[in-house]
User: Which sequence fits this backbone?
């Protein structure tokens, strides 16, 4: 059976760190409020010349290097982002150009904070369907560029960054002992589209717009939606919460992460948490967290890793993979 196995990972962050203390100088907020309600202590904010594509390309180069291959060996790029450099062409082709790659194909997926989960699932389907052999899967965002910096209810929550993995087709036997993506479950429900959205766009206002969120409403649904798709992943794979070595959740809010882990009975020692350092980087948050936990030696070859996310749309999803 063909499986999509992770061969390398990389990440990139903007140079500038903005602490909660610095946020206090911009809007009526406090370090205490932000830490208590979200767990966030700092975030990275893109400066001049740093864009979604530049960060995505930097992460992709590191992932290629970690995999011991070059862009010549890649046949597909899928980039999850809601903050593209341009409305079109896609950020994926922008990154393709930055990698000096003129063969293969590249496209974006847009599922807001669930983007990386959608992108891995898409890449896995292309690999198992025989349409691609080696895929760069990227999550890259510059949410700082769509924030209303006068709205304290949103501007303290988000940050910029990018992460990337190389997925490669591999002939694997069996179900549970094999490496690679084991099962993926995606969901969306557009009836919630006005709870977390951007109030502009090419076809409506002709402007980029700003992020708007009914935070409490999003919070209300988050844990239930996340645990639903994770339970579906367990049912489909025959694996249980006890089998999971690492839960790598989307990093939106420490309280949502803790709530989901508790409901699933996954101990916090097995949860990778980076929201304190990165804030919510939307589609970049999972590959950024993965890359921290791989670099510090927590996630090792053969570990069962559970990815999950929920965000604007609403969209939500989970991926179970053996590293
Ligand atoms: O990644 C995509 C998914 N997005 C999310 O998962 C976000 C989900 N939502 C959340 O994480 C939380 O709802 C927030 C962190 C956004 C807000 O936390 P909350 O506990 O739901 O607070 P709240 O919205 O109920 O606001 C409580 C109070 C309000 O004051 P009043 O009305 O009680 O007087 C807000 O005005 O906190 C006030 N507040 C702030 N105070 C200081 C809101 N933002 C701030 C702020 N600093 N930055």
Assistant:
């Amino acid at each position: 059976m063909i499986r999509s196995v992770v061969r390398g990972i990389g990440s990139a962050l903007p140079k500038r760190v903005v602490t909660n203390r610095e946020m206090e100088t911009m809007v009526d907020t406090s370090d205490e409020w932000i830490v208590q309600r979200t767990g966030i202590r700092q975030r990275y904010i893109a400066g001049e010349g740093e864009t979604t594509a530049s960060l995505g390309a930097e992460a992709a180069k590191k992932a290629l290097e970690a995999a011991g291959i070059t862009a010549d060996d890649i046949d597909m790029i899928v980039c999850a982002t809601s903050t593209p450099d341009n409305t079109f062409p896609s950020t994926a082709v922008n990154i393709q150009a930055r990698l000096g790659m003129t063969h293969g194909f590249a496209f974006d997926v847009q599922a807001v904070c669930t983007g990386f989960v959608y992108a891995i699932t898409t890449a896995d389907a292309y690999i198992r369907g025989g349409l691609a052999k080696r895929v760069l899967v990227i999550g890259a965002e510059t949410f700082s560029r769509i924030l209303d910096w006068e709205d304290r209810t949103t501007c303290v929550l988000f940050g910029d960054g990018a992460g990337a993995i190389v997925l490669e087709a591999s002939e694997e036997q069996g179900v549970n002992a094999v490496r690679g993506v084991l099962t993926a479950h995606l969901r969306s429900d557009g009836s919630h589209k006005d709870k977390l959205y951007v109030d502009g766009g090419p076809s409506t206002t002709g402007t980029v717009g700003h992020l708007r969120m009914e935070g409490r409403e999003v919070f209300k649904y988050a844990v239930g939606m996340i645990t639903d798709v994770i339970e579906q992943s367990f049912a489909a794979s025959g694996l249980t919460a006890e089998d999971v070595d690492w839960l790598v959740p989307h990093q939106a809010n420490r309280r949502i992460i803790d709530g989901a882990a508790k409901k699933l009975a996954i101990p916090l020692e097995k949860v990778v948490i980076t929201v304190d350092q990165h804030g919510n980087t939307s589609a970049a948050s999972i590959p950024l967290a993965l890359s921290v936990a791989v670099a510090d030696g927590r996630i090792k070859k053969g570990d069962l890793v559970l990815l999950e996310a929920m965000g604007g749309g609403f969209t939500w999803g989970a991926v179970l993979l053996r590293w």
In short: Residues 2-171 form a domain with the Peroxisomal Thiolase; Chain A, domain 1 fold (CATH 3.40.47.10). The chain has ten helices and 13 strands.
